[in-house]
Fold these 3 entries.
Entry 1:
Amino acid sequence: MRADFDLSREVALVTGGGGILGRQFAHALAEHGARVVLVDRDAEKVQAAAAEVDAHFPGRVMASVSDITSPSSWTQIEEQVDSAMGPATVLVNNAAAKSPNFFEPFETFPLEDWNEVMQVNVTGAMLGCQVIGHAMARRRRGCIVNILSVYGVVAPDQRIYEGSEYEGRAINTPAIYSTSKAALWGLTRYLATYWGDHGVRVNAISPGGVFSGQNETFVQRYSARVPLGRMAERHEMCGALVYLASPAASYVTGQNIAVDGGLSVW
C-alpha cells in the first residue's frame, strides 16, 4: 500500500452505515487501515454491516444505533467514538432518507415527506459537522466527505423513468432528492472556506446511478445516457472516498468528485 493512501491513523465515522454504500465505504476504509464507526438508526442493518466488515478486519469497526437528526444523538456519538476508538478524524455524511411517499409527483408531494427527507439528508449532515467537524477544527486536523448525487449537479432526464421499476414499484428521482443533495453541496463549499485555516478539509462525492436491483427497462434507459454505457457497481464509489480521506488529498478541499460514468458531462 502506498503511504499516501494509508489510513491507519484515521478514525472514520460513516452515517447511513447500514445502507448499500455505507457497507462498501466501511470495508474500503478498514481495508486501508482506518478504524470505522458505522452510524444508522436501523439497528439490524447497521449491526449486520459492522459484523460483515469485522469478519474481514477484526477490531476495526463498531456500530452506533443513532438518529442523526437529533443534536443530542451527535453528542452521544462523539462521546462513544472518543471512548472506544479515539477522536474521529474522518466524517462521511452518507445517510439519505426515503419517505413513505418518496416517488409521488412533484405537484402532490406531501410537505411532511419533504421535511423528513431534508431533515436527514441536510440537517443531519449539518448537525454532524457542527459536533464532529468542530472537534476536528479544535484539533486542527480532519476531513469531511459529503455524499451527494449526480442529480444534485444536473437534472434527471425524466424520459429514463418511463416503465422503470424497483422491487415492483414505479420509480423516479423526486425533486426533494435533487434539492437536498444540491443543498449539501452548498454546505460542502461553505465549510471548506470556514474551516480551511483550521486544518479541516471538506469535499464531496457525487455518485451516478448504482445498480441495486432496478428492472431491465431502467438499466437500459439509464445506461444509454451514460458515456461509459452502464450503471455503476457499489464498490466503484470507494476509490474516491479513500483518496479524499487520505494524505494523498492533503491539498484538496471544496471539491466534488463526480463518479458517474460521465453522465454529468453531457
Entry 2:
Amino acid sequence: MSLISNIRTVLTMGRGMKKGLSEEMAGKDPFKLFGEWFSDAKRAGLFLHEAITLATCTKDGVPSARMMLLKGFDERGFVFYSNYESRKARELDENPKAAIISHWPILERQIRIEGDVEKLTSEESTAYFHSRPRGSQLGAWASAQSSPLESPEMLKQRFKEIEAKYPQGPVPLPPFWGGYRLKPQRIEFWQGRLNRLHDRVRYDNSGDGWEMVRLYP
C-alpha cells in the first residue's frame, strides 16, 4: 500500500471505531450503506477490497465456503460468476440459498448477507464475460472446475487447444459459465469498537421494505 493509502486506511479505521454505527448513520437503506462501506474500502487502497466469502449448502445441509470476487451490486442483489458445473454451482442447483461475507479487518468492518440465489440472464453473463481479459476468457473454457485433474500439464494443454481454436476475434461465452445474483433477505453490518463494544446492525427484508434491529456484539 502507498503512503496515501495507508493514511486513508488509518483515517477510515479511526472514523469507524470512534464514531461507531448509529441508527442515523446506518440509515434505512442497507444497499446505500453497503455502497458507502465498499467505497471506503476501495478508497483506503485495500488489496482486493471486493473479495468475499461465499457459503453454499447441499440439499442435506452440508456447507462449503470459498473466497470469490464480488462483481457488482445494486438493489436487486449481489453478483458473482462461476462455472455452472463447479461444486458451488451444483450446491446452488440443489439448494438455491447462500451467504456472503465482506470482511475488511484493518477497517474493523464486516458485512454478512444471506438470501436466495438466481442465475443471471445469458445477456448479462455475456456482457461481463467479454469485459474480462482474453486469457481469463480462454481459461474459463479450459477449466472443468471442481473436476479431478491428472496434472497441471493437462490444464495447460487444454488452454493451448482452446487458444488455437479461438486465435483471434471474440471468444464465445461457454454454455457452462455465467453469473449469479444473491437476492438478500438479511444484511448485517458489524463495526469494531473499543473494549469489544462492537456495533451490529441488521436489516431484515419484510417484503414491504427493510426492518432494522440492533444486536448485542
Entry 3:
Amino acid sequence: MIIAIDGPAASGKGTLAVKVAHHYRLPHLDTGLLYRAVARILTDRGLPLTDATAARQAARDIGPAILADLRLRDRVMGEAASVVAVIGDVRSELIDYQRRFAHQPGGAVLDGRDIGTVICPDAHVKLFVTASVEERANRRHKELIGRGQKADFGEILQELRRRDERDANRATAPLKIAADALLIDSTHLDATATLQTAINLIDSRVSLLKKH
C-alpha cells in the first residue's frame, strides 16, 4: 500500500506521516530531506543554491549518511531546500529515488509537496494536510523554542508565506491538491486527533478500493 501525504511547510504532515507509517507498519520517507540534503551539500561545498549544474550533481551524490545528518533539520536548511526545489534538474534526479522507495514490496508512506501529483500519482491513498499559515507559524515557533533555538514569530510567519508562494508558483511540480486526495485541515486539531482522522480516511479508502 502506497500512502502519499502532501501539504505546505509546517502543516504537520511529517509528524503525521511517521505515525501513519508506524500504525500500518510501513517504511517512511520524508522527501523534504532530499532537498535539504542537496542544499546542505551545496552549502558545504561553498556553492550557491541557485547553481543548477552543481545542484544536480549534489542530488546525484545523496546517500544514507547525509540523510541522517541532524543539520538537515535546521530552520535555515528548510528555507534553503525550497530554493533548490524549484530547479527542474534537481527534481528530475530525485524522482526515481522517491519512486523506488514507494514501490518497494509492501509499499511505503511518503510525505512531501508533490507525492500525490507527481511522484506517486498511482498511490492507493492520498492525503493533503494543511492548516492556516498563522497556526503553522505558531507550531514552528513552539518547535524551535522547544529545541532551545531563538525564534521570532513574525519572521517565521513571513518565511512561511514566502515558501507557500514559491511552492505554489514554481514551474515544476507546484504544490497543489491531487484531484483524488483526501483533505485534512488540522488548524483546530491536535496531533492525536489528526492521526485518528487520517487513519479513518485511509481505512475508508482502502475498504472502498477492495470492493472494486
